[in-house]
Write a structure and sequence with these properties.
Length: about 200
């Protein structure tokens, strides 16, 4: 029987607290409460996607600024590093308007969800990591999703303008809304959670 490792439970606790905090927009925290409620049940199908990609090298730099941070964001950042060798890595190769070299300059890290450290199909929790000056392609997906930024970065929803939620800012994407994100001149790291 599967038992969730302590380091992963620490990540779930830290990330759940940050997503569901009163400091986040109401749509983010209400949605996130539904996601993290499902994570009281442990479940893993054993599928792993451990192969790394070039953009994985930006993780340390993106986490660095929060190493000594005493807020809930620092707790999230510190809980990620011990899991690094168990993250399920994947890249998006479809979508419009991504920067020319975006495939090599981004990676998505699945911590909970298909191919992640706790591989399952009902929920996803992980992060997107972008190299400096990288635009992720416009994309959409049926699952609802919430983001929480651990670094600066910009987002776009539907045909609205680019906006910058700021470190600790969050946003909620309703089902199938077109959205995209881009980094500044530094690496970008944003956590996400989805109900699938
Ligand atoms: Fe998305």
């Amino acid at each position: 029987m599967y038992t969730r490792p302590k380091a992963l439970q620490d990540f779930v606790d830290a990330t759940g607290a940050a997503f569901c905090s009163d400091a986040r927009p109401v749509a983010v925290r209400e949605f996130s409460k539904r996601v993290f409620a499902l994570l009281t049940r442990e479940s893993d199908n054993g599928i792993r996607h451990g192969a790394r990609f070039p953009a994985c090298k930006y993780l340390d730099n993106a986490l660095e600024q929060l190493t000594d941070d005493r807020s809930d964001l620092g707790a999230v950042a510190r809980s990620i590093k011990p899991l690094e060798s168990f993250v399920g890595w994947q890249r998006r190769t479809s979508g419009e308007n991504g920067s020319v070299d975006y495939i090599d300059k981004h990676v998505n890290g699945m911590i909970i969800g298909p191919g992640g450290m706790e591989s399952r199909y009902d929920v996803q929790v992980g992060f997107s990591l972008l190299a400096p000056a990288t635009r992720y392609p416009d994309h959409r997906h049926p699952p609802e999703e919430a983001y929480l930024l651990l670094t600066d970065g910009e987002f776009k929803q539907a045909d609205g303008p680019w906006f910058s939620p700021g470190v600790g800012g969050g946003l909620y994407n309703m089902s199938n809304i077109l959205h995209a994100m881009k980094s500044t001149d530094a690496p970008f790291l944003a956590m996400w959670c989805l109900l699938t």
